Amino acid sequence: MRLRYVVADVFTDVPLAGNQLAVFTDGRGLDVATMQALALEVGFSETVFLLPPEADGDARIRIFTPRSELPFAGHPVLGAAFVLGGPLQRGAVALETGREIVPVTLERDESGRIVFGRMAQPVPAVTPFADTAPLFAALGIEGSELPVERYDNGVDHVFVALPSAAHVAALDPDPRALGRLGVAGVNCFAGEGARWTTRMFSPLDGVGEDAATGSAAGPLACHLARHRRILWGQEIVISQGGEIHRPSTLVARAEGDGDVIEAVEVGGAAVIVARGEFVLP
Q1: pLDDT tens for residues 147-162?
Q2: CA dihedral 67, 23, 119, 151 (to 10 degrees)
Q3: How far apart are alpha carbons 167 and 216 in whole angstroms?
Q4: Do domains 2-121+268-279 and 125-267 have the same CATH topology?
Q5: Average pLDDT, whole number, for the chain?
Q6: Alpha helices per DSSP H over 140-236
Q7: Does 90 have pLDDT greater than 90?
Q8: CA atoms 154, 159, 165, 166: torsion sign
Q9: By C-alpha distance, which of 194, 214, 45, 224 is closest to 126?
Q10: pLDDT at 72
Q11: Tens digits of per-residue pLDDT, 47-76?
């Protein structure tokens, strides 16, 4: 069995930055155990398997961390859209995820190369995160400048606001203590206006810290708009990954009114950096 794959660096326009993603271009015939084993073998934060559509999408995708399958994740959707959009020669692709169908609009340069994509993400459910004391202790901080809340769009993210980008960069959390909280992603952020810096710690997925978290970028825009740090409909630019030498840039925008989220969009670039195949018996 020969399994072809593509490696893309996502949320960057230069190779060897952003968040790494392996996309297996034909996942037919693979069982869940084999997909999970391949994701562990690759070792990236997520690995995608492309499959024929079952609903109204252009393709179905399954997303695996080194430890488990996810119903939705941001950089796998965007990266898979870049990989699929090239041969399809389409201005948009719709990907069937475990959460819902996610449409991705693709922008091309004069040569026809895809240079940017924007995905309409699932609208997250928001709940308070009441047990903040062990969270702050695990992060080594005194508190958050905004209410700490949990956003679930298929991935469970908690958001903690810090005074400055320097405070974000200085974080040195206790991974075991974070893991005991049972949260998929702990996001610490700072900034103002249209520019924000964030770090995402993911103690449950076997990665530790994420280089670029598309599934958190949309909820961050929601969180900022709900707490009146930005306007609904305002696009923000998010910097992430510099502390682990994988600088990434994400853009996000949320539509809503008051505390009600109506729509979420996240965008970024991606570059394909490698192609290969696994040979299995």
Answers
A1: 999 999 999 999 999 9
A2: 0
A3: 19
A4: yes
A5: 96
A6: 165-169, 175-179, 214-226
A7: no
A8: negative
A9: 224
A10: 98
A11: 999 999 999 999 999 999 999 999 999 999
Of 41, 46, 96, 145, the active-site residue reads 46
Residue 86 sits at the vertex; the CA angle it makes with 95 and 63, to the nearest 5 degrees, is 35
- Assign domain 2-121+268-279 one CATH number from 3.40.50.11420, 3.40.50.2000, 3.10.310.10, 3.40.50.720: 3.10.310.10
Spans of all domains in the chain:
2-121+268-279, 125-267
Q: At 205, is the pLDDT very low, low, confident or very high (cuts 50, 70, 90)?
A: confident
What count of Cα atoms within 13 Å lies in the side-chain half-sphere of residue 58? 21
- pTM, whole model, 2 decimals? 0.97
Give the burial class of 1: count Cβ atoms within 10 A of its Cβ; 0-12 exposed, 13-18 middle, 19 or more buried: exposed
* Residue 81 structure tokens: 């859209």
Q: Find the helix or strand (DSSP H, E) in which 271 lies.
A: strand 270-279
Query: CA–CA distance from 263 to each of 136, 168, 200, 239, 260 (Å)?
Result: 30, 28, 22, 22, 10
CB atoms within 10 A of CB 216: 33
Q: Which of 131, 165, 167, 163 is nearest to 144 (CA)?
A: 163
Hey, is 212 helix, strand or coil?
Answer: coil
Quote helix, strand, coil % in the chain, to nearest 5: 20, 40, 35
Q: Is 262 a catalytic residue?
A: no
Domain 125-267: which topology?
Diaminopimelate Epimerase; Chain A, domain 1 (3.10.310)
